[in-house]
Amino acid sequence: MTSRVKDWTATLDSRNVLDVTMEIDDGHVVAFSVNYRARIREEWVEVVRYDTAHGHLHVHENWKAGEDAITSLEDEDDPDPPYNDALTYAEEDLKANWQEYREKMENEVIESD
Questions:
Q1: Spans in the chain with pLDDT lower than 70
Q2: Do 63 and 103 touch, CB atoms closer than 8 A?
Q3: Comparing C-alpha atoms, which of 104, 12, 101 is closest to residue 49?
Q4: How far apart are CA 86 and CA 28, in angstroms?
């Protein structure tokens, strides 16, 4: 079976969205990205992104600076796909905590002014 890509945007409210992309092969998620974006000061900014780019699972927390902004989430005992559970976790985390993440990003924007 060949892999296929699905993508969609889920609206949290008029100023907050999740962009989801996943690659599915033989019924399993083999790559994905879940990106929470917020409209802050009339600009769309990426706040948090879970993804499997560069061949490993990690999260970007964009209110943090430098290397601290990216955290590896690989399971040392099971580092390879499928990522079905990781995708579910990422979506659930962002849907449950987007307001907290938005506040952290807004505080970072204010501090950088």
A1: 1, 76-81, 113
A2: no
A3: 101
A4: 12
The pLDDT assigned to 60 comes to 95
Query: CA-CA distance, 10 to 43, in Å (whole number)?
Result: 18
Cis peptide before 79 (omega within 30 of 0): no
DSSP E strands in 1-113: the ranges are: 4-13, 16-25, 28-40, 43-51, 58-61, 70-72
Q: Where are the domains of the chain?
A: 4-112
Report the pLDDT value the prediction gives residue 13, as an integer from 0 to 100.
97
Q: Which residues have C-beta within 8 Å of that of residue 98, sequence separation ≥ 6?
A: 12, 16, 18, 36, 38, 47
Distance CA 81, CA 103 (A): 32
Helix (H) or strand (E) holding 14: none
Rounded Cα distance, 105 and 89, in Å: 21
DSSP symbol at 1 = -
